[in-house]
Design a protein that fits this description.
Shape: elongated
Order of helices and strands: HHHHHHHHHHHHH
Distance between the termini: 21 Å
Largest sheet: none
Strand content: under 5%
Structural class: mainly alpha
Number of helices: 13
Length: about 270
């Protein structure tokens, strides 16, 4: 019984469409940059009048003008991150609750295969599917920046470094989604659960700029990979990167252990 092949077959089309939609949004948004660049003075007057907290909530950082291709790119990417998080959390919730939700657990668990193997194959198939989405998003963003930079100089390595954060963000929300699904007896609406779950973190990331409480930054994965920070510092925020890796590993291990001893509901 090739579990990986079957799970990947279910996911690859969805992953391709997610990647096309998220990357297409980035391409569409970046296509407006040449028009914006032609009226930089008027646009910057509006931006300068906005409170600093609002700009930070949108992913902007001091010293990175929004009316520059890199500044506009970081704003675009910060909005794309929410969709990346929703997709990853959705897959995380779905892969471990699928059999119970569709009442096919009896069929799968009576096969000559261990729960550990089922978990590993499901996880690997999902990681490969998310990899397809991430690569497609990255390709579309690279095309958009190279096509719509309006003659401005920019550093491809910085773009690639920002895009390199995609697998980490996906991994964090995938693991959290898996662990979340193990906390419910039966997940009835995956979409509502994953969208609501990710939206809470996205809103929290927005309001951090208004609250002088630095510890809140540790509670939202969106803050771990701020595109503005990566571009201005030319590096990842290492404490947050290590925290993200720790979250990925811990949530997946805990989900694995819970899946092994979970009392599955059948028909």
């Amino acid at each position: 019984m090739n579990i990986f092949k079957e799970e990947f077959r279910k996911l690859w089309k969805s992953a391709f469409l997610w990647g096309l939609a998220i990357g297409g949004f980035g391409l569409f948004y970046l296509a407006f940059y040449p028009s914006l660049a032609k009226n930089q003075e008027g646009f910057m007057a509006i931006i300068d009048a906005m409170p600093k907290e609002i700009l930070e909530a949108l992913g902007m950082r001091y010293g990175l003008p929004l009316a520059s291709i890199m500044g506009y790119f970081t704003l675009t990417f910060s909005m794309m991150q929410m969709a990346m998080g929703i997709q990853s959390a959705y897959y995380g919730v779905a892969i471990l609750s699928e059999e119970e939700r569709e009442q096919t657990a009896d069929f799968l668990l009576t096969k000559p295969v261990t729960r550990g193997r089922i978990f590993r194959n499901k996880l690997f198939a999902t990681i490969c599917a998310l990899g397809i989405s991430g690569l497609l998003q990255g390709a579309l963003i690279l095309f958009a920046v190279s096509r719509f930079h309006h003659g401005e100089d920019f550093d491809y390595s910085l773009i690639l470094k920002v895009l390199g954060s995609i697998p980490f963000l996906q991994g964090v929300f995938l693991g959290m989604g898996m662990l979340l699904s193990m906390g419910f007896r039966k997940v009835r609406n995956i979409t509502s659960l994953s969208v609501g779950f990710v939206t809470v973190f996205y809103i929290l990331n927005g309001i951090i700029a208004y609250l002088p409480i630095d510890q809140l930054r540790y509670f939202t994965p969106f803050h771990y990979f701020e595109a503005g920070y990566i571009v201005t510092e030319n590096s990842y925020n290492m404490p947050f990167l290590l925290l993200a890796v720790g979250l990925i590993l811990s949530t997946m291990v805990l989900s694995y252990l819970q899946y092994l001893r979970r009392d599955m509901e059948g028909v």
